[in-house]
Design brief:
Structural class of chain A: mainly alpha
Strand content of chain A: under 5%
CATH superfamily of one domain in chain B: NADH-ubiquinone/plastoquinone oxidoreductase chain 6, subunit NuoJ
Strand order of the largest sheet of chain A: 1-2
Strand content of chain B: under 5%
Largest sheet of chain A: 2 strands, antiparallel
Distance between the termini of chain B: 48 Å
Radius of gyration of chain A: 21 Å
Number of strands of chain B: 0
Largest interface: A-B, 33 and 28 residues
Helix content of chain B: over 70%
Helix content of chain A: 55-70%
Distance between the termini of chain A: 40 Å
Order of helices and strands of chain B: HHHHHHH
Number of domains of chain A: 1
Shape of chain A: globular
Structural class of chain B: mainly alpha
Oligomer: heterodimer
Number of helices of chain B: 7
CATH topology of one domain in chain B: Four Helix Bundle (Hemerythrin (Met), subunit A)
Largest sheet of chain B: none
Chain lengths: 344, 177
């Protein structure tokens, strides 16, 4: 086989293995952390500290009866959970996870797809995730599901704007869409969240809305819409939505730490250019992502849900102007030469 | 390999475009439009223009078509009734299509188009595209931006019912779907 292709497949396999395990691990973390915040034990029966609870849950999902509502739009209803997984398992290909590794005289960059349009490809694939929510809600033929989908489509469009503009601001001093360039720039200068704290806060808030997490989970709001767009889904199909949600969170966290917190690097440390250096880089990236995931959980069990009109007002009247202000500030700082040498 | 990918996605684009115009359910038509746009984006990638392909997915599939779906679901549009059947409209559309194809054929036969300058890696790269867009074509770019702004303001004014206040006051609750 072509060694180039083989290397890409191996890299994809590594990232896939990492990201497919996010959902079961987060299932346990979320429930234990929530229990800790609410001062109760949480799941602790299956295995030590309830660690085997995700396995039990997975078995339960697989052996439950698979029901399709008789009034559902069958083709769309069956397709929706599968489509949810497509953006979840493709966006991470542009995230660099280690230094260039030299194996057998070849230099292999540790990113699955080292393309010119890196960040844009991530955003384009991520923007497709809304279709599974919309299809699920429409196809279920349930008014609560439909309301959930309508909310999801409006919410994702609104927050994508602020998110994209704050991401673009990060790229101005780097003068490249390639995430490995973003990491190299931060290694050379300073982590981007320091000069761009405003943009980072906008990114952080918008990413909660983009992944449908509390306090912005209006599309599944239990107290209003039963379970929103996935009300009519059970067994493994529900589990696929669950899997997609956590994988999206992890991918967006990986993008966030790559843009604002140096990605796989640590300031002042050069990882060796061999397999061990690659593993260290991956471990660093995963540690940062794990921290972000814990924050998602922490926020979820701390803040109440926003009302729909508050959500829209925050998105359009606060976050969007702030992200544009940040863009202008960063452009000015870059022109003034405060953000390091600028390559026109 | 590339030819195979081209034919698969060209067929997908054409097939789904047919579904867009022919399907009775607006939701299915819109979802097929997404497939058309994504397949066309793959064709752009094959042509060596990744930026255009990615923007096609990001802007059209990721934002504009979502708004179409939003409106369709908000208005709860159902399947079109087929009261008229494939009557006069279909024949008129076919006639129009044939006439248009004929005109295109004539135009291409009569007029020798100047050969476009060959695409280089430099001109399709992000930097080449940016310096073209914000250098040579800056004025048209800005005019298009202005046109879009005018369209947005026009739509906002047109959507307001006469006699309604210009904006909701802050303490008035907006109606949430």
């Amino acid at each position: 086989m072509n060694p180039e292709l083989a290397a890409t497949l191996v890299k994809y396999a590594v990232m896939f293995l990492v990201f497919i395990n996010v959902a079961p691990i987060m299932n346990w973390v979320e429930r234990r952390a929530c229990a800790f915040i609410q001062d109760r034990p949480g799941p602790n029966r299956v295995g030590p500290f309830g660690l085997f609870q995700p396995v039990a849950d997975a078995l339960k999902f697989m052996f439950k009866e698979d029901v399709t509502p008789s009034a559902a739009d069958r083709p769309l209803y069956l397709m929706a959970p599968a489509i949810a997984l497509v953006p979840a398992f493709t966006t991470f290909v542009v995230i660099p996870f280690g230094p260039d590794v030299q194996i057998g005289g070849r230099t292999i960059p540790l990113v699955v797809a080292n393309v010119d349009t890196g960040v844009l490809l991530f955003l384009a694939l991520a923007s497709l995730s809304v279709y599974s929510l919309v299809m699920a809600g429409y196809a279920s033929n349930n008014k609560f599901s439909l309301l959930g989908s309508i909310r999801a489509s409006a919410q994702l469009i609104s927050y994508e704007l602020a998110l994209t503009i704050s991401v673009l601001a990060v790229l101005i001093p780097v003068a490249s869409f390639r995430l490995s360039d973003v990491v190299a720039y931060q290694q050379q200068h300073v982590w981007s969240f320091i000069p761009q704290i405003l943009g980072f806060l906008v990114f952080l808030i918008a990413s909660f809305a983009e992944t449908n997490r509390l306090p912005f989970d209006l599309s599944e709001a239990e107290s209003e819409l039963i379970a929103g767009f996935h009300t009519e889904y059970g067994s493994m199909r529900f589990a696929l939505f669950f899997q997609a949600e956590y994988t999206n969170m992890a991918a967006l966290s990986a993008l966030g730490v790559t843009l604002y917190f140096g990605g796989w690097t640590l300031p002042g440390i050069d990882f060796p250019h061999n397999v061990w250096g690659g593993l260290l880089g991956l471990a660093t990236l995963l540690a940062k992502v794990a921290f972000c995931m814990l924050m998602y959980v922490w926020v979820r069990w701390t803040f109440p849900r926003f009302r729909y009109d508050q959500l829209m007002r925050l998105g359009w009247k606060v976050l969007l102007p702030l992200s544009i202000l940040n863009l202008i500030l960063v452009a000015a700082m870059t022109l003034a030469g405060w953000l390091g040498p600028w390559k026109p | 390999m590339e030819t195979l990918i081209f034919f698969i996605f060209a067929a997908l684009a054409l097939g789904s475009a047919l579904v867009v115009v022919a399907h009775k359910s607006p939701v299915y038509a819109t979802l097929s439009l997404v497939l058309t746009l994504v397949s066309t984006a793959v064709l752009f990638l094959l042509l060596g223009a990744p930026f255009v392909g990615v923007l096609q997915v990001l802007v059209y599939a990721g934002a504009i078509v979502v708004l179409f779906l939003f409106v369709i679901m908000l208005l709860n549009l159902q399947k079109e009734g087929s009261a008229e059947g494939p009557g006069a409209q279909l024949w008129a559309a076919l006639l129009g299509a044939v006439l248009f194809l004929g005109m295109l054929g004539l135009a291409f036969r009569r007029v020798a188009l100047p050969a476009p300058p060959p695409l280089t890696a430099e001109s399709v790269s992000l930097k080449g595209l940016a310096s073209d867009l914000f250098g040579e074509y800056l004025l048209p770019f800005e005019i298009v931006g202005l046109l879009l702004l005018v369209a947005v303001i026009g739509a906002t004014v047109a959507a307001r019912r006469p006699g309604e206040p210009a904006s909701l006051s802050e303490n008035e609750e907006e109606i949430a779907p």
